[in-house]
Amino acid sequence: MTELTSAPDQRLHLQLLDGFRLGFGRTPIHVVPGAQRLLALLALRAAPVPRAVAAALLWPEATARRAGACLRSSLWRLSKPVQLVVAVDDALTLDLGVDVDFRRACAFTAEPGANPAAVALLKADLLPGWVQPWVQAERDWWWQARLRALEVLSEKLRSCGDHHHAHQAALAAVQTDPLRESAHRTLVELHLADGNPAQAVRQYQSYRALLRAQLGLEPSPHIHDLMRPLLRSTR
């Protein structure tokens, strides 16, 4: 790990969204793959992780003895020059001083509020390219949670009059799941609220064509009823 010089305005930052990165202020810290996986596992878990569970999850192909040795090696690598992992009885947890972007993003899923800064976190993928089953389980949860949060965020920003960031949130939801009707409907409603019916029609028609091509389905009556007056006027 990179040698660090402490400064009062710096903290340890662990990035899991859009890729793994550990940094101290603006200084990146090199972490070997095994230690990366350990940090990610502890950051994704709210409660301390028993050592045996961590070893089995991180080194599933190894014997229990070998996995335990790998875990001890990773802990040794993470012990200097700063504290990253804390032992609680026979379990491990991430030090409370480490700022984790995924945890901040999860707070937005629980209460999106009307914070434009949430858009960047909510539209990011969790550890892209990581194939471990314990990562995939968290990624599946994150995919659903952020979609719901982006739609709620868009509606709250719109109600506050911030249509620019409301559009960004709705568009991020559509880009995350192009077949999600509620995300398209949120974007259509924003176009209508902006007095841009032509763009609302284009958005609806694009979604309808995609839905037909991908699933052979039609949009629900809910969104069709919203668009019916405009579709009549275009005939």
UniProtKB/TrEMBL annotation:
InterPro entries named in the record: AfsR-DnrI-RedD_regulator, BTAD, TPR-like_helical_dom_sf, WH-like_DNA-bd_sf
Coiled coil spans: none
One Pfam family of this chain: BTAD
SMART domains documented for this protein: BTAD
Domain Bacterial transcriptional activator: 98-231
UniProt superkingdom: Bacteria
PANTHER family for the chain: TRANSCRIPTIONAL REGULATOR REDD-RELATED
Protein name: SARP family transcriptional regulator
Taxonomic source organism: Lentzea alba
Organism taxonomic ancestry: Bacteria, Bacillati, Actinomycetota, Actinomycetes, Pseudonocardiales
